[in-house]
Specification:
The complex is a heterodimer of chains A (121) and B (107). With 121 residues, chain A is mostly beta strands. Chain A has no helices and 11 strands. In chain A, strands 2, 4, 5, 6, 9, 10 and 11 form a 7-stranded mixed sheet that branches. In chain A, a hairpin with a 6-residue loop joins strand 9 and strand 10. Chain A starts with a strand and ends with a strand. Classes of the chains: A mainly beta (121), B mainly beta (107).
Chain lengths: 121, 107
């Protein structure tokens, strides 16, 4: 059974850092593109970052709103995805979802339960 | 960036009603469009991909259609478990973008 379990969320002050983790099971992340998507309280969905799979050299892509502050990475041995978030702003407050991309149509076929990040003084 | 305009943003309907949600990209996305359902406090769930292909396990009362710059999600007979928020998403260009959502509530 495919599962994605996020952790690492919490309360952080503006300008601070946080590292989110996503533990995958039931499949190998090396075979898949993986993304982070976030949702601010009461708002819609916003794509944050993408990590391509091993055959595509783990190339990354970021939303303009987080470029230069966030870094997506993965640990194939731990079958885990990460999101390092630096220079956090109040507008980064959101539930962050880890997602798996399905090869071929590239849709987000599995989502984690999400982890809440609150940026506030 | 490709903007996705969903309409309506809110609709009130009864069990058994036929419901249609529209998604209009600001420019063509071929058929690289997906629909997701999100219930309160839960992660989104994939319903339709490639504009019109039903995800495995999704009831056949859901259907998707369209291409280019106009897409629709239709629920042929609304069931109690379908009350949720629905989002479209384009996967044709980065940054990937989502529509603003359509909240379906009980009349």
């Amino acid at each position: 059974e495919v599962q994605l379990v996020e952790s690492g969320g919490g309360l952080v002050q503006p300008g601070g850092s946080l590292r989110l983790s996503c533990a995958a099971s039931g499949f190998s992340i090396s075979d898949h593109y993986m993304d982070w998507v976030r949702q601010a309280p009461g708002k819609g969905l916003e794509w944050v970052a993408r990590s391509r799979n091993k055959p595509n050299n783990y190339a990354t892509e970021y939303a303009a709103s987080v470029e230069g502050r966030f870094t997506i990475s993965r640990d194939e041995l731990k079958n885990s995805l990460f999101l390092q978030m630096n220079s956090l702003k109040t507008e980064d407050t959101a539930v962050y979802y880890c997602t798996r991309r399905r090869a071929g149509d590239w849709t987000f076929d599995f989502w984690g339960q999400g982890t809440l990040v609150t940026v506030s003084s | 960036d490709i903007q996705l305009t969903q309409s309506p943003s809110f609709l009130s309907a009864s069990v058994g009603d036929r419901v249609t949600v529209t998604c209009r990209p600001s420019r063509g996305v071929h058929n690289y469009l997906a629909w997701y359902q999100q219930k309160s406090g839960k992660a989104p769930k994939l319903l339709v991909y490639a504009a019109s292909t039903l995800q495995s396990g999704v009831p056949p009362r859901f259907s998707g259609s369209g291409s280019g710059t106009e897409f629709t999600l239709t629920i042929s007979s609304l069931q109690p478990e379908d009350f949720a928020t629905y989002y479209c998403q384009q996967l044709n260009n980065y940054p990937l973008t989502f529509g603003g959502g359509t909240k379906v509530e009980i009349k």
